[in-house]
Amino acid sequence: MRPFLTTAVASALLALAAPTRAAEPVLIGMGSLSGSLSDLSGLNYSLESGLAANLLGGMGSGLAWAGGNTFLALPDRGPNANDWGASQLDNTTSFIARFQTVQLSLTANAAGSALPYTLTPKLQATTLLSSSTALNYGPKAATLSGIVDSSTVLAGSKNYFSGRSDNFAAGLSTNPANARLDPEGIRVANDGKSVFISDEYGPYVYQFDRATGQRLRTFALPDSFAVSKLSSSGAAEISGNTAGRVANKGMEGLAISPDGKTLFGFVQSPLAQDGGDGGRYNRIVKIDVATGTTSQFAFDNQINGKAYNSSELLALNDHELIVLERDGKGMGDGSKAAVKQLVKIDLTGAAEVSGIADLRTQPGTAIVGTRFLDIKAALNAAGISDALIPAKLEGIAFGEDVTVGGKTMHTLYLANDNDFLATAIPNGGSAPVAYGNQFYVFAFEGNLVNQTIAAVPEPSQYAMLLAGLAAVGFLARRRRG
Question: Where are the beta strands (DSSP E) in 301-427?
C-alpha cells in the first residue's frame, strides 16, 4: 500500500522535480523514547546526585547509522542540568560514558495519516566505554557532602571513562590518560566492529571496540586545540585560557567518509584564539584514519549575519559535508526555537588553515555553505510549534533508502539531547510535559554516497549484565575500603 501524503508533503515532493532549485528534505516520520527508562547497563546504584546510574536520560548528542534499522545513540557526560550542590564540578557525576544501540523502525502509515511513516525506537543494548590502561581520576571532594572518590568508577581491570569534570591530571587537556569524557559525536567503522567518538573535554577523538567498549586508539589532535590551565569548573577554564577549545564547546561533531578512510571533526564554537564562543570561524579537522595525519579547514558559521554554534557534521560524500547549526532555544530551555538549520559545505579547493594562528586575520579562507534544510520550518509545517521544538537538536545520521509516493528517497535522521530532564515546561505553558528522546526522519533526493557497513552481532543481554555487575561490585569494594 502506498503511504498517504499530506498536502504539505506532497507539494514538497513535487518540488523535487523542479529544475530551478533543489528541494529541501521533507519530514516523513517521527517517534520518541522516554528518557525516564532504565538503560541496559546493569548499573543498579545511585550517582552522587542521587539519580540512577542506569538512567537512560538523553541519548541524542550523537547519532550514527550502523546498517539496516540499527543506530548508535550517544549520551553526553551525563546528568548535570539539576543543581545538586556541586557547582565546582559543574554538577557533573561519575556517570560512566556509554553508547546505546537502538532500532529505529519505520512503519508505513494508513491513508489519512499526517505523515507517511511512524518511527518506533527500541533500545537494544548499552555499551560502557573503558580503557585497558590506567586513567587519571579526581580526588575525593571533602567539601561536598556525600561525594565519593572519583576512582570508584573503576571496575576490576577496566578503567571506565566518566563525565565527572575533575577526572584529569596536570598538563594539556588533550592528555588521553584523563578519565573525563564528554562524548558528542559518534560514527561506525565500515567493518562494523568499532566506533569513533569525539569529545568536548579534551577535545579527543577515540576509537572504541563496538562490542566491548574498550578504547582501541587515540587520534592526536593539534596542541592548538588544547587548553593548558585545567579546572573542574567550565567557567574557570574559560577565564584561565586564551587559546584552545572553549570549555563545553570542544569537539562537538564527527563525520566519516563513505569509504571509512577519513574522519572529519569540528569544535562547537571557534577556538579561543579564533574569537571564542560567539565567533564566526570554526575549524574542521580532517583525520586520515590509517596514519592519523590531520589537516584543517575553516568555515563561516553565520546565518543571516549572526554566528551560531555548530552541533554536528555528516558526510554526503568524500568532499561535501552537512553541518547542523542551531541556537539553544526551544523545548527544555523554556523559550522558542528560532534557528535550526542544516548547511551544506564543499571542501573542494578549500584552503588548508593549520598554519593560521587566528582565522579572523584571514577570513577569506573560510568556506561559506548553502542551506540544506530549514529544520524549524519543516517542523512548524508538521504542526510542531517553536516552543515544542527541542532546544538541543544535536545528532544526525543517514539511514536506509525508503519509498515515498512511489519514489525511492534517501533518509536523514535527527535526534535531540534532553539534558537528562524527564520533564520540561514549554514556553507559554504552566505545567511540565514529558521531555524524552525525540527522533525525526526526513526524506530527500540528491547525490548521497552512503556507507556500506558490515553486519556484526550486537552485545548480548548476558554480556551487558556481567559488565554492569562488575562495575557495581568494584564500586562496593572501593566504598568498603
Answer: 302-303, 306-307, 309-315, 320-326, 340-346, 370-374, 393-398, 402-404, 407-416, 423-424
AA identity, residue 314: L
Asked if 192 and 66 touch (Cβ cutoff 8 Å), the reply is yes
> In 352-460, at which residue ranges do the beta strands (DSSP E only) sit?
370-374, 393-398, 402-404, 407-416, 423-424, 433-434, 437-444
Average pLDDT, the chain: 89
> What is the percent of the chain with per-residue pLDDT over 90, rounded to a whole number?
79
| Residue 32 burial by Cβ neighbours in a 10 Å radius (0-12, 13-18, 19+) | middle
Could you tell me if 304 and 317 are in contact, meaning their C-beta atoms sit under 8 angstroms apart? no
In whole angstroms, give the CA distance from residue 13 to residue 444.
9
Given a cut of 90, whether residue 82 has pLDDT beyond it is no
Write out pLDDT tens, residues 307-341.
998 999 999 999 999 999 999 999 999 999 999 99
Is residue 348 helix, strand or coil?
A: coil
Residue 54 to residue 294: CA distance in whole angstroms: 36
User: 449: which 3 cell numbers?
Assistant: 554516497
pLDDT in tens, 161-219: 999 999 999 999 999 999 999 999 999 999 999 999 999 999 999 999 999 999 999 99
ω into residue 203 within 30 of 0, thus cis? yes
Q: In one letter, which amino acid is 3?
A: P
